[in-house]
Structures are given as C-alpha cells and as structure tokens.
C-alpha cells in the first residue's frame, strides 16, 4: 500500500470510529461474503447478488424467508447468522429496530430519499415503494360514476360491483389495516369496522390470487377493485385491460420494502457495502426495468419505466410503526367477523 493509500485508510478508520458508519465499496476493506435474509423472489435476488459480486468480488449467500423473515432475525439475536435484511414492509423494520436488532448505516444516497421511505436514525432504508390504488374497468363505468375515495366503497350503489383480494395478500392486509387506522386515529375504531362490513356487503367476491382478481375485472364480473400499482399497469399495458386508476382523495397506502444491517453481523463491512449497492440508484433502476419495482430514489425513477414518473397519486397518512403491532389481530378479526358477513349491512 503506497503512502497516499495509507493516509486515506487512516482517515477512513478515524472517521469510522467517531461517526455512524458511512458505506464504501472498497474491496480491500470487505469480507469474502455477505449473508442476506430476504422476502424478495429468488430471480430478483440472483440479479442483485450477481451484480454485487461482480462489483465487489464479495459472494452473496441469500435465503428467501418470506413471512418467516422477522421471526428468524429475532430468534438469532444472540448469535446473528445473517448480515443484511432485505425486503419486508417498513412496519416490520420499525418493530425490529425497537427490539435493537439493527445497526445504523449511512449510505451515500441516504439524504436523497424522502423521510417517509427511511428511518430518521439511519437504521433502515426503503428500496422499493409499492402504492396500493383503487381502479375500475372503464368499459363498465365512467370516471364520474367511479368512486372518488375509499369511503365511497361503502355506498350501497356499488353493491356487487367490487372484487378484492382476501387478507392473505400482504397488500390487502396493509390496505384494510390502513383504512381502519384512519378511524382509530379519531377514536372511532368501531365505526371503522362498520365501514368494512358495509364494504363487504358491496363486495361480490374475494380472491386469493391476484391474477384471478384481475381476470374477474377483465371479464366484467365486477368493475371496481384495488391492487398494487405495478400490477394495475402490467394488466393495463401488457394485457390491454381497460383499467383506470383512482387517485383517492384521502390518499392511498404506500408500502415500503426496506433494507438494513443486522446488529452483530459477522460480515459488517460487506453488509454495509451491500446496503449501499442494493439501495443505490443503479440497482433500483435495474429492478424497475427488469421486475417493475418502483424505486424510492428520485435518481432511479428518472431512468425507470416512464409510468413510474408520470403517474401521480396522493399518499395516505399511515403510521406504519403503530400499525405493525395491531395488523395481525385486526386481520384475524376481519377474516373471522367481517369477510362475507356484511351482506345484510344497512
């Protein structure tokens, strides 16, 4: 190592000792591998892992845990077996941060992300935003006839015009819970349950599959539904369905998939480098173009499919941290007491 490199390394070491770690991709400072626990699909993980290894020489070992991810990280708190948590909604990250399971990290792009997409203390960052919006079949109703807000879905005039996903869908769980929270914030949770029961009375059918849900709307079995924005666009463009998006007056829930360094990670330098890489504009744009995932970084949106920058929507005010501790209980109640039980609601 020459004198210049020695000086740079000394400065880096000094700063690392007194500041929240700032991520770098310098290969000589990284461990040989990084272990990533994720909820993302394997095809997407392979693309990110291959690109990271090509960039840094660090091998990525990823494990797809889906709904078991948070419990696995908790169970390994005393002896972490992973270095990075990649995927899962922000509500889960807020829960695990409160349980002291993450280490702070400051990637170079941290200041470019809006506050709603990151932890204020630097413990996790959003890499994908997933808006959940209402939509309708424009061959079945006009814009004037379509609902303008979520609360319109309880109007009896929409009876048998709606199909939705059941609560096994993560986007549906987040949506039903977000709507309930709007009532809870006003101390009117009971009214929230009445609202969902009235919506149920108007709902023709629930689907466990997103493809079946869209097929029902496409076949004109029902005009109105809601789904993640990228699925609506996929069906509108690729399947040529006559779908129109509703920008709800009260805003729409936006689910944020995150990334974080595990506290006590065995490969901490590689872990922080992975966060820097996977959350950066280059990878966010790559996932937008290859997998239709909407970036959180404005720089990435600029080089993503055009619709990601063109479609404007209002964001619902959701306290995802507060929602995290209540969502399971609320959705159990929805499944047992609300679903298919409000058909006689007045």
Automatic annotation (TrEMBL):
Keywords from the UniProt entry: Signal
Listed InterPro entries: Ferric-bd
Gene3D superfamilies, per database record: Periplasmic binding protein-like II
Signal peptide: 1-26
Protein name (record): Extracellular solute-binding protein
């Amino acid at each position: 190592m020459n004198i210049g490199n020695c000086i740079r390394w000394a400065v880096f070491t000094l700063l690392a000792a007194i500041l929240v770690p700032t991520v770098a991709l310098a290969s000589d400072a990284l461990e040989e591998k990084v272990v990533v626990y994720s909820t993302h699909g394997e095809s997407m993980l392979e693309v990110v892992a291959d690109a990271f290894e090509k960039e840094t020489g660090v091998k990525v070992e990823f494990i797809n845990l889906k709904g078991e991810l948070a419990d696995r990280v908790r169970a390994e708190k005393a002896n972490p077996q992973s270095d990075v948590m990649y995927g899962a909604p922000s509500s889960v990250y807020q829960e695990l941060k409160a349980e002291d399971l993450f280490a702070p990290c400051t990637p170079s792009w941290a200041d470019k992300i809006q506050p709603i997409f990151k932890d204020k203390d630097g413990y996790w960052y959003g890499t994908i935003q997933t808006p959940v919006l209402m939509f309708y079949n424009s061959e079945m109703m006009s814009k004037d006839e379509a609902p303008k807000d979520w609360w319109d879905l309880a109007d009896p005039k929409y009876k048998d015009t709606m199909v939705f996903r059941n609560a096994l869908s993560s986007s549906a769980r987040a949506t039903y819970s977000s709507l309930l929270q709007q009532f809870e914030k006003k101390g009117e949770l009971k009214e929230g349950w009445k609202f969902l029961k009235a919506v149920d009375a108007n709902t023709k059918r629930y689907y466990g599959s997103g493809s079946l849900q869209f097929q029902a709307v496409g076949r004109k079995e029902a005009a109105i539904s809601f789904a993640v924005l990228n699925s609506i666009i996929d069906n509108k463009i690729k399947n040529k369905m006559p779908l129109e998006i509703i920008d709800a007056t009260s805003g729409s829930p936006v689910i944020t998939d995150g990334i974080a360094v595990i506290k006590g990670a065995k490969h901490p330098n590689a872990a922080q480098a992975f966060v820097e890489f996977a959350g950066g504009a280059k990878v966010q744009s790559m996932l937008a173009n290859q997998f239709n995932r909407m970036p959180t970084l404005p720089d990435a949106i600029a080089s993503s499919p055009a619709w990601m920058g063109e479609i404007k929507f209002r964001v619902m005010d959701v306290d995802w941290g507060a929602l995290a501790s209540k969502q399971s209980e609320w959705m159990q109640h929805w499944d047992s007491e609300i679903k298919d039980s409000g058909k006689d609601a007045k």
